[in-house]
Design a protein that fits this description.
Urease, subunit C, domain 1; 404 residues; TIM Barrel; 14 helices; 2 domains; binds zinc ion; 7-stranded mixed beta sheet; single chain; alpha/beta
């Protein structure tokens, strides 16, 4: 695929998937100064660049990554029980600390797979330069961990400094907070962090309702997390009130500008009701990671049916063989042929952009939006359903225009 300059080209291809509307056979995308001016399937103007037997679609959005693990060659074992996986992951990191080069390796992998925007969790104060000049817009959620109250003040100060760093003003890097999860952040610290994010107009990401063991810990103060936390010397039996539910971690998010509920595998009707009335909160589903941990079916279809935004993520290479959001979508399309495929496409594009606050610029191929387009090489089949052809396509490639 040749390099294109979006200020000078009109593109046509066998199929164009705008996401905001039905696929267009022999579709045309007109571009001026890096923005889309028209999308149609009328006869193309002279000079139009024909991309051939490919599909053109909006660049992809990976709403949940931990790029500090991008050097892992394969997912960490064992997958189960979950707390053993966490212990293994912690062991891997202690043996080989994260570096900026590893994060950049992950960014390059995401970019090569057609991703334009990511929601990244960072355990350290990496400078903004780490994420810049990659062709990707990154929302960096600084991870905070502290179950017992004696760690709370330090974690809150880390969060405060992270958000006040002038680096956050960069166009391609936005700073947010990630109170890690209910089993690793005490309820008071959680509320303080969310309040700080509200004060600073920063987005929040929290791992929530990920395992049954987490629900047991919240409800009863028992189970495998207690054993793990005791081994980490971090358990305090009084810190989480008995009878706590995931809903108790959603309610403080009511005033955040944007919130990401990562996984949400075991959300129940009370949480559905709350999410339905809080459209700034997105649930992020990580399909292949979800399968790796052998959870029962994720409630993503029911969430979407209720009008709740659901985005897709790869999670880290600690639970996924690669960082390709495209392969997450292919996985879903293959596993759920009964689902409207444009919905799957939207989860990896528009809904992800909505989650990360860029849907006015990205996520669909529509006039006025940035011309950030990926091309998916299609099989040679002459006929067939457009979506079936699309999801049988090869890994996407960004069209290679200048990136900031
Ligand atoms: Zn995660």
């Amino acid at each position: 695929m040749p390099e294109f300059d979006p200020s000078r080209y009109t593109l046509t291809a066998r199929w164009v998937f705008p996401v905001s509307g039905p696929p267009l056979q022999n579709g045309v995308i007109e571009i001026d100064s890096g923005r889309i001016t028209a999308v149609h399937n009328h006869a193309p103007k002279p000079g139009t660049v024909n991309c051939g037997n490919v599909a053109l679609l909006p660049e992809l959005v990976n709403a949940h990554t931990h790029l500090e693990f991008s050097d892992l060659q394969q997912p960490v074992q064992p997958a189960l029980p979950f707390t053993e996986w966490i212990k293994s992951l912690v062991g891997v990191r202690r043996g080989s600390p994260a570096t900026a080069a590893v994060i950049q390796q992950g960014l390059a992998e995401c970019r090569a797979a057609g991703t334009t925007q990511i929601g990244e969790i960072a355990t350290q104060d990496w400078p903004s330069e780490t994420y810049q000049h990659t062709g990707i817009r990154t929302v960096v959620f600084r991870e905070l961990i502290g179950l017992s109250s004696d760690r709370a003040a330090v974690q809150l100060e880390i969060a405060r400094q992270w958000l006040s760093d002038p680096g956050q003003r960069d166009d391609t890097v936005t700073r947010g907070l990630s109170p890690h999860a209910p089993y690793s952040v005490g309820p008071d610290l959680y509320r303080d962090l969310v309040n700080l994010a509200v004060e600073q107009d920063a987005p929040v990401a929290v791992h929530l309702a990920e395992t049954l063991a987490e629900l047991e810990l919240l409800d009863c103060g028992t189970g495998e997390f207690v054993d793990m936390l005791q081994r980490f010397n971090a358990w305090d039996s009084q810190i989480i009130p008995r009878g706590t539910r995931p809903l108790d971690y959603l309610q403080p998010l009511a005033s955040v500008s944007r919130g990401l509920v990562i996984h949400g595998n075991y959300l129940a009707s009370a949480e559905f009701d709350w999410l339905e009335t809080h459209p700034r909160i997105t649930v992020v589903y990580c399909p292949r990671t979800h399968a790796y941990f052998q959870h029962p079916p994720h409630p993503w279809k029911r969430l979407l049916d209720r009008g709740i935004n659901v985005a897709l993520g790869t999670d880290s290479r600690g639970s996924n063989p690669d960082l390709s959001l495209w392969r997450e979508m292919q996985f879903l399309a293959m596993k759920f042929p009964e689902v409207d495929p444009n919905r799957i496409l939207a989860m990896g594009t528009l809904y992800g952009s909505r989650a990360l606050g860029c849907d006015s610029e990205l996520g669909t191929l529509e006039p006025g939006k940035l011309a950030q387009v990926v091309c998916v090489p299609l099989p040679e089949a002459q006929n067939g359903d457009s979506y079936r052809l699309l999801f049988a396509g090869q890994d996407p490639m960004p069209l290679g225009w200048p990136t900031s």
